[in-house]
Amino acid sequence: MDHLTLNNGVEMPALGLGVFQTPPEETRAAVQAALEAGYRHIDTAAAYGNEREVGEAIAGSGVDRSEVFIETKIWISDYGYDETLHGFEKSAAKLGVDQIDLLILHQALPSEFEKTLDAYRALETLLEQGKVRAIGVSNFMVDHLTTLLDKASVAPAVNQIEVHPYFQQREVQALGAKRGILTQAWSPIGGITFYREGEHTSTLQDPTIVAIAEAHSKSPAQVMLRWHLQQGRSVIPKSTKAHRIAENFDVFDFELTADELAAIDALDTGKRGGPEPTDITLENFGRPIPEA
Ligand code: NDP
Predict the structure, then answer these.
(1) 11 C-alpha to center of ligand 1: Å?
(2) Would 17 be classed as within a structural domain?
(3) Centre of ligand 1 from the C-alpha of residue 187, in Å
(4) Which structural domain range is residue 82 located in?
(5) Which residues are 13's β-sheet partners?
(6) Is 195 one of the catalytic residues?
């Protein structure tokens, strides 16, 4: 398995299991299947409602806690300095851990950026106190990152953003690379494109990706994950199915050529699958995160 070194020296397994939209009752089995397949990194979020099950699966797995990299996210309803400190307490209690490996802000709140900065200051405090090993952000665009870098004392270690062959966000990635912020791809195999209405856009059926997969006797999902890893990104594919969880981890025994990487680079449509970051407001997306 590949590891990536974050900007503060912390080592993170490059590939983790994502659990967005994994129902709580299926989460234990998915995390268990992942740990059995060799995963040592799980990406959850306060807003996913399954932190408790992630923690229970890790605790019951027989794999030492210290070997598993746990990443979670503070939801926008818990932004503000004190609120975010409390958000950490809620997540840690649900996960059943004293320390979280990577804690990130789930979204920028563009219309209330001061509140976002207050939340980030709380992450800096948690880092200083040793309650988290690394801090970061998610869905931060160039302007959000630029303002944050200007105001923060600690640069984020990670920016988790939508990246798959059909939406690559190269400008955000380039700024991250320049400032030591690792890009972590959400929807790395294009999951967000599967739900698009009225269009057949699945990256899994893309002829370019399918042809590359056939050439390597691998699946389209494995080819996309390899594309990310070879370009230095972390990936957190989601599945609830044990065989796909194992398939998505079986990507460390082949290499794409420079031409193949370039062919996938050329598939960018510039069309975002997730919500526009500017549309994220407490009015539209705020909802309380339950106490532990
Ligand atoms: P993914 O690109 O991981 O795709 C997931 C979809 O692909 C699911 O429908 C899954 O179905 C299917 N799938 C998984 N593996 C395979 C395979 N090998 N072959 C065929 N189909 C497969 O998209 P997600 O949107 O789920 O993103 C992954 C993770 O990223 C999330 O779980 C979450 O952790 C994070 N995320 C973060 C966001 C943020 O705002 N920060 C937003 C969205 C996601 P099935 O489960 O049935 O196998």
Answers:
(1) 23
(2) yes
(3) 5
(4) 3-196+232-254
(5) 3
(6) no
Each residue's pLDDT tens digit, 243-273: 999 999 999 999 999 999 999 999 999 999 9
Secondary structure class of 11 (helix, strand, coil): strand
The residue whose CA has the least distance to atom 26 of ligand 1 is 238
Q: Which atom of ligand 1 is nearest to the CA of 43?
A: 34
**pLDDT tens digits for 131-141?**
999 999 999 99
Q: Could you write out the DSSP letters of every residue in 155-187?
A: --SEEEEE-BTTB--HHHHHHHHHTTPEEEEES
Domain CATH for 39: 3.20.20.100
Which value, to the nearest 10 degrees, does the dihedral of the CA atoms of residues 116, 117, 121, 123 take? 40
Closest CA relative to residue 255, chosen from 232, 223, 277, 221: 223
Q: Is residue 206 part of a domain?
A: no
Q: Would residue 142 count as lying in a domain?
A: yes
What is the 249 CA–ligand 1 centroid distance (Å)?
13
* pTM exceeds 0.85 for this model: yes
User: What residues are in contact with ligand 1 under a 6 Å CB criterion?
Assistant: 18-20, 43, 106, 138-139, 160, 186-192, 194, 204, 219, 221, 236-241, 244, 247-248, 274
